[in-house]
Design a protein that fits this description.
The protein is an alpha/beta fold. The protein folds into 2 domains: about 5-290, no CATH class; about 315-490, fumarase (Alpha-Beta Barrel), CATH 3.20.130.10. It is built from 15 helices and 19 strands. It has helices at about 5-25, 25-40, 45-60, 90-105, 150-155, 170-180, 200-210, 215-220, 225-240, 325, 345-360, 400-410, 420-430, 440-445, 485-509, and strands at about 5, 70-80, 85, 115, 125, 130-140, 145-150, 160-165, 190-195, 255-260, 270-275, 280-285, 315-320, 335-345, 370-375, 410-415, 435, 450-455, 465-480. The strands form 5 sheets. Strands 14-15-16-17-19 form a 5-stranded mixed barrel. A 4-stranded mixed sheet has the order 6-2-7-12. Helix 2 (about 25-40) runs antiparallel to helix 3, helix 11 (about 345-360) packs across helix 12 (about 400-410) and helix 12 runs parallel beside helix 13 (about 420-430). It starts with a strand and ends with a helix.
Length: about 500
């Protein structure tokens, strides 16, 4: 019997799912993150997880994006062989129309991040299309769809290798994860694909991330195959690296590890790692010919009631009056609350500024003694002054850092995750500072922004230079004026603490 599925139902279902995942975390993820929060002993990591959970609840209540990077859309679609689709568009265009409608929704505008001509003009398509679409034709009379929205920061940390057949997958993963840094916003999930060809390993690694967080169930029942053995071993050993939430050092780096494998050539062992960040976003629906398949809202009681207090001893900083000598008293790992005028700028703005500096052209804004926030905010809706505005990965600005600091007098930077050695040296040499905001807490951060206006490069859209007025915006000193990096010292300390605890337990046994 043939099932007839209407074009409009496909479009509506995709649009609804993408809106849904922009502000609702999956319950399994919330539960796992809460477990990590309860057991965490590193205060910096515990604070970061608290901010992620508070942000998640706020987004669920306010129907605004969990992260300012609302992702590149990936769709896995299985079309039953007994299905007839009625419509005048190709299936790919139907799916992209669903994406378009979701990202242009007036009540919850999502950031358009997709650029055409990726090695040339890099022009924003304006509606976050096209999606990355994977098709299968399968037996049956339904259309089964998984949609996911993947942030660029975590996608950029994907790793691939063609190992020799005798090489250890575990050893390779444990070598790669520290190299991934914190730009993928841990704690999250690692999807690992083994086998097939190069592209197949990447595909099954991505597909594995659609599965629920269930590692603790696996720990209780035990492994029944090689893939499950790898999951258990890697979950244990990756967490013992001590990288922790946001890379600041702690007990939980991964909430789960997924492993999919596929038969491969005798001479090959393709292996891929794709991380899923703290803004885990995916949904599933099935079309049966009875109309659109819409998502069911979760119960807000599923979110833990967590508060985050910075304490009275926290350092409060007025950005409008802060001096270079003040910054030199700040120490790595310290919590700071920022108030005053904060500039923004990310990749495109930094490239343009450096080009102008090299040509001797004046910049649109004076950076002397100022702080710049690496962010591309979501457009505001209703009474908002700005949409969700969490940090972007700071290392992408590393190659511009020395020039910008030394030629403009920039005093400080705010971003996500660690800085590379070249940027740390530039910060140290110029007695500047780098502050870290929590990735995955974009809506929470936006509530500290009381005013926003574009002050430069308006043609760059979300990558324009804004001037924010902020009130008590929470950040951590990640690289102080002496070059001490919390992302280096934190994981080292916690890896040693975890090893010491393991040794004590072994001796007791």
């Amino acid at each position: 019997m043939t099932t007839i599925i209407q074009q409009d139902d496909i479009i509506a279902s995709v649009a609804d799912a993408l809106q849904y995942i922009s502000y609702y975390h999956p319950k399994d993820f919330i539960d796992a993150m809460h477990q990590a929060y309860l057991k965490e002993r590193s205060q910096a990591a515990k604070d970061a997880i608290a901010q992620i959970l508070i942000n998640s609840r706020m987004c669920a209540q306010g129907h605004r994006p969990i992260c300012q990077d609302t992702g590149i859309v990936t769709i896995f679609i299985h079309v039953g062989m007994n299905v007839k689709i009625e419509g005048d568009l190709p299936l790919e265009d139907m799916l992209n129309e669903g994406v378009r409608q979701a990202y242009k929704h007036p009540d919850n505008v999502l950031r358009a991040s997709i650029l055409s001509d990726p090695d040339g003009a890099r022009k924003n398509t304006g509606d976050n299309t096209p999606a990355i679409i994977h098709y299968k034709i399968v037996p049956g009379d339904t259309i089964d769809v998984h949609v996911a929205a993947k942030g660029g920061g975590s996608e950029a940390k994907s790793k691939f290798a063609m190992l020799n057949p005798s090489d250890s997958v575990v050893d390779w993963v444990l070598k790669m994860v520290p190299q991934m840094g914190a730009g993928w916003c841990p704690p999250g999930m690692l999807g690992i694909g083994i086998g097939g060809t190069a592209e197949k390993a990447m595909l099954i690694a991505k597909e594995s991330l659609l599965e629920p967080v269930d590692i603790h169930d696996l720990i209780k029942r035990g492994a029944s195959n090689r893939a499950e053995e790898l999951r258990l071993e890697l979950f244990d050993k990756v967490n013992k690296l001590g990288i922790g939430a946001q890379g600041l050092g702690g007990l939980t780096t991964v909430l789960d590890v997924k492993v999919h494998d596929y038969p491969t050539h005798a001479a090959n062992k393709a292996v891929a790692i794709i991380p899923n960040c703290a803004a885990t976003r995916h949904a599933h629906f099935t079309l049966k010919g009875s109309g659109p398949a819409l998502q069911t809202p979760p119960n807000l009681e599923d979110w833990p009631d967590i508060s985050w207090e910075v304490g009275e001893s926290v350092r409060r900083v007025n950005l409008d009056t802060v001096k270079p000598e003040d910054v030199q008293t700040w120490k790595s790992g310290e919590t700071v609350l920022l108030s005053g005028k904060l500039l923004t700028g990310r990749d495109a703005a930094h490239k343009r500024m450096v080009d102008m500096i090299n040509k001797g052209e004046p910049l649109p804004v004076d950076l002397q003694g100022r702080f710049i926030y690496y962010v591309g905010p979501v457009d505001p809706v209703r009474t908002e002054v700005v949409g969700p505005a969490g940090p972007t990965t700071a290392t992408r600005m590393d190659k511009f850092t020395r020039t910008v600091i030394e030629k403009t007098g920039l005093l400080g930077m705010v971003g996500k995750a660690e800085r590379g050695d070249a940027a740390i040296e530039a910060i140290k040499d110029n007695k500047a500072v780098y502050l870290m905001a929590v990735g995955g807490a974009a809506y929470l951060v936006s509530k500290a922004i009381t005013a926003a206006k574009v002050v430069g490069f308006a043609d760059l859209g979300m990558e324009a230079i804004y001037e924010f007025e902020v009130k008590d915006m929470p950040v951590t000193v990640a690289v102080d004026s002496t070059g001490d990096s919390a992302h280096k010292t934190g994981p080292q300390v916690w890896q040693a603490k975890i090893a010491e605890t393991e040794q004590v337990l072994t001796l007791k046994d």
